[in-house]
Amino acid sequence: ISAWAISWSVVQKKGVFFFGSNTQACTIDNCFVGSCNNLNGDCTGISIQDAKSITMINCSSLSHTAATGYNCYGIKIENSTNCNCTNVVSNNNTGDSAIGFLLKNSKNCTLSECAANNNTGIVTEGIGFQLINAHSNLIEDCYSFSNIGKTDGIGVQLIDASTCNSIIKTTASLQTSSLTGNGQGFSCMGGFRNFFTACHAFGNKGGSSVLSKGCGAMFQSETTTTIADSSFDCNDGGTGTGYGLCFNFVTNCIVKACT
Predict the structure, then answer these.
(1) Alpha carbon distances (Å) from 233 to 84, 89, 149, 171, 206
(2) Beta bridge pairs of residue 90
(3) Would you state the pLDDT for residue 13?
(4) pLDDT-derived band of residue 11, with 50, 70 and 90 as boundaries?
């Protein structure tokens, strides 16, 4: 698929949808998907499900809005392997929760030179890049700015036993909570042997509760995760507390040459 412009999808509420175990070795190049709004449910700009070796290059998925009570995804990669995104942008999406890029139950995927900015969760979270039960994936040279959530604004999040993922030369900054939650550049919970190197997080800001946190990076219940050669600057707790790095119930984690 090359040089497409797609504005909406009536039935699936997905702009582009690749799915099925026999869907493999396809390329999406130089495509724009915008305003795939759904008045009745979730919406997704570009969805890849149960597929293999899908490549996305020089694409944009922008300004989608989900119905009240539903979630919005700019790019969703689910139950898939060996998928690659290069120079892909997922910005300005809105829903109860809004996710720029979602990798769920997926492995051996690469996101390179991608951006996820200004995604707004009006009820829960606004997140740039989210990995859920994801394994051996690479996020490299990516940017996540100004994602806003009523509960949490997060640049890059790894949750639900995500393991052996590498986050390299990625910036996650200016995430905010619009109410009483947390602003976190990087958030990692319940994983094993994840690796962060040459990353940067600055200006993340918590909300209006004394329990709010503004964190460059927060690690909870992680095991054998490494953070190296990275910087975490000027993070503000709002009414709460600001942290460069915050660790809670972690085991055998390593922090090396960070500022």
Answers:
(1) 30, 25, 21, 12, 14
(2) 61
(3) 55
(4) very low
Say if pTM beats, i.e. exceeds, 0.90.
yes
What are the tokens at 239?
């009414």
Q: For residues 144 and 117, is the Cβ–Cβ distance under 8 A?
A: yes
Burial 31-53 (b: 16+ CB within 10 A, else e): bbbbebbbeeebbbbbbbbebbb
Other Cβ atoms within 10 Å of 247 Cβ, number: 15
117 conformational bin, left if phi > 0, alpha if psi -120 to 50, beta if neither: beta
Q: Are the C-beta atoms of 111 and 89 separated by less than 8 Å?
A: no
Q: Is the pLDDT of residue 10 over 50?
A: no
**Rounded average pLDDT over 17-40:** 87
Residue 116: CB partners within 8 Å, gap ≥ 6? 74, 89, 90, 91, 100, 101, 127, 128, 129, 142, 143, 144, 147, 155
Q: Residues in the chain, how many? A: 259
DSSP string for 111-127: EES-B----EESSS-EE
> Percent of the chain scored above 70 by pLDDT?
95
Tokens of 242: 């600001």
Residues contacting residue 244 through CB under 8 Å, at least 6 positions apart: 215, 216, 217, 232, 233, 235
pLDDT at residue 24 greater than cutoff 90: no
> How large is the average pLDDT for residues 133-156?
98
